Amino acid sequence: MVTLDQIQAYMRDQLVEDGEKSFVNVSGESLEDALSQASIELGIPVRRIEYEVLERGTRGVLGVGRKPCLILAYPAKHIEEDNAGPDVAIDLSLLASDAEPADRDGGVFVRLTPDGIMMKVTRPVGSGDRATERDALEKLYERVDDGIDKGAVARVVKHASGDFVKVGDFEYDPSADASLSVEVADGEMKAYLVAYAPGDGGADPSYEQVVSFLQSHGVVAGIDEDAIRGFTDDPVYRETILVAEGSPPKNGADASVKYSFDRDPGQVQLKEKNGRVDFKELNLLQNVVQGQVLAKKVPAARGEAGRTVTGRLIPATDGKDIDMPVGKNVRVSEDGSVALAEINGQVVLSGGRLTVEPVHVIAGDVNLRTGNILFLGTVLVKGSVDDGFTIKAAGNIEVMGSVGKSKLDAEGDVIVHQGVAGKGGGVIRSGKSIWAKFIENSRVESSDLVVVSDGIINSTVLSDRKVICRGKRASIVGGHVTAVEEISAKSLGAVAGSETILEVGYDPRRKEKLSQIEEKRSGLQQRLEEIVLNMSTIENLIRAKRPVADDKKAFYQDLKGKKLAIGAEITKLDDEAAEIREYLNGLQVTGRISASGTVFPGVRISIRDAFLEVRNEFRAVSFIADKQTVKVTKYEEPDEDLTIGRKG
């Protein structure tokens, strides 16, 4: 292991080998101060100096027992030149932030210490002027009368390193040191320092002395180190300096609620379709589903205690907790941090409480003001539905007025108090029953009943159970009406003999699906035959051993792949069709068509596999199937409970 003695011996040998090399013995308050002094004495930058520490300095206590740091310094044997040049020091002040002044003159700072007269010179910034020897001497003579080393002053000014360097001596008298006083004010939140200039032979206070003084007088927190360093670098006496500032307490923020939906549904959000704004899609509803997170609670924050300059803690208040503002159909999680929807519906923030409404009420008509409606619950329209608008609901749809050339789609019942005038384009679909005053020029699909009071005119009606027309004018005129179990009305057809098709005894939806499958299969079969024909043409060329171009070979492989895909799709459709046929053949219902009043000629009746075209007028009759024929019997009243809202 290399010892300190070995290192010292080696360095002494190097000095002997280089007789021309100069060296100096220098001292300073610290190693850095000593090296700065050596830089001036040798006339070279610190980075070019090698040194031995002869005696490590000690700070002492309040200046008592202080010992300087002594070093032996000499030029380094090997020097790496840098881009800065041999005598150029880097002024870090040039890297200051944009907040610094663009131009600043070089400065001169003087301190009197027990070790001597210390001076620091800083470089100018921007177009500022350099500090001169005259500036430095004037500053020095403001503090002392003699003992100044003008050569050292010149070197410090030349290098302007920004470090304090000893430039002279004076007869030090500890009893004449500067004195300090401190005032604690503003409820112990601020501490002000006032310093009084030293007398003859006295020293300026050091940074450590100021800090120790403050601490000994009870100022232990919030000390402004920059302010103290600024004062000790350039002492200003008999002026009040803010040297410490307490930290006020920070009360914790109260708990709050962060909502996961738009709390301002009245703000219109328009969508574009094909580059055009669709004014029907206003998106005014705030739909939610069961279990959806509606809001999260942001916990109350803990307060941060403050502290006075004397170290006394100032308590802070923690934020207040709050309960989740939940109302009907909303629940709170076990930990109380999340509000969840209990049902599908519309989330509403009313009276500061979260509520999920299963019913969305539209006070007037569905039109451009409301836009299309999509709701995960029941929709109640107190007006009418204008042409071209759509209502989709996971619950029921009830319209107090009328419905035009519109689309209504509900998982529950659809109730139209003033009837449907579809103008050839209206569509109503229901997962349960459909109730209306009348249905005209529309398509209607129901998974349960279709109940009409005034009649059905020129419409397509599909019901998975029954179509019932009750009332003084309850007639079915024109169109195509299909039901699984029964069709009943006061009158069927019209005097004019307009074609009215009535079908019962099978599932109309499944039958329609079967027709769609058969139509699609027919198209695929036609495509398959064309592919087989094209493939045969190429295969014949191959059998005849005639040349086949590469593009035709690729075309053949493409046809082969399409043939396999279409064949698989046809097989799938055949399986679906077979399943539907099996279901239809297994239906146990026989079906019945009844009229309490008149059945006019021109009505075509289909009951399972039995058909009848009415050529003569009938009154108060029912039609049933009997051995693949339609039999006319005495009128039978439907036994269905036609009360809206019935259980079923």
Overall description:
Among the domains are: 4-75, Dodecin subunit-like (2-Layer Sandwich); 92-168, no CATH class; 174-245, no CATH class; 256-357, no CATH class; 511-585. The protein is 21% helix and 32% strand. The strands form eight sheets. The protein has a 22-stranded mixed beta sheet that branches. Strands 10-14-18-17 form a four-stranded antiparallel beta sheet, with no helix packed on it. The protein has a three-stranded antiparallel beta sheet with strand order 1-3-2, with helices on one face. Strand 39 (603-607) and strand 40 form a beta hairpin. The model is unreliable at 79-100, 266-270 and 277-282 (pLDDT under 50).
Share of residues in strands: 25-35%
Specify the overall morphology: elongated
Number of helices: 8
Number of strands: 42
Sheet of most strands: 22 strands, mixed
Q: What structural class should be given to the helix and strand makeup?
A: alpha/beta
Q: Estimate the helix proportion, in percent.
A: 10-25%
Briefly say what this structure is.
The protein is 21% helix and 32% strand. The protein has 8 helices and 42 strands.
